[in-house]
Amino acid sequence: MKRSAWRYLWTARDIRKRLLITIGLLAIYRFAAHVPVPGVNRAAITAL
């Protein structure tokens, strides 16, 4: 992308809001993927 296109992503309020929400949801997903779930046999999942 051109430099002006990146700058536009941060100056356009609607696009910036959507981009930050998307990044936030991805961060939450990545964090939650490492939280152990009770009742799940980790050894059985590791064997897969």
What does this structure look like?
- With 48 residues, this protein is mainly alpha-helical.
- The chain is built from three helices and no strands.
- 0% of the residues are buried.
**Gap from first CA to last CA:** 40 Å
Strand content: under 5%
What would the average pLDDT be, to the nearest integer?
87
Helix content: over 70%
* Total E-strand runs: 0
Protein name: Preprotein translocase subunit SecY
Organism: marine sediment metagenome
InterPro entries: SecY_dom_sf
Q: What descriptors fit this protein?
A:
48 residues; mainly alpha
Set down the secondary structure blueprint.
Layout: H1 3-11, H2 13-32, H3 42-47
Give a quick summary of the entry:
The protein is mostly helical and 48 residues long. The protein contains three helices and no strands. The chain has one domain.
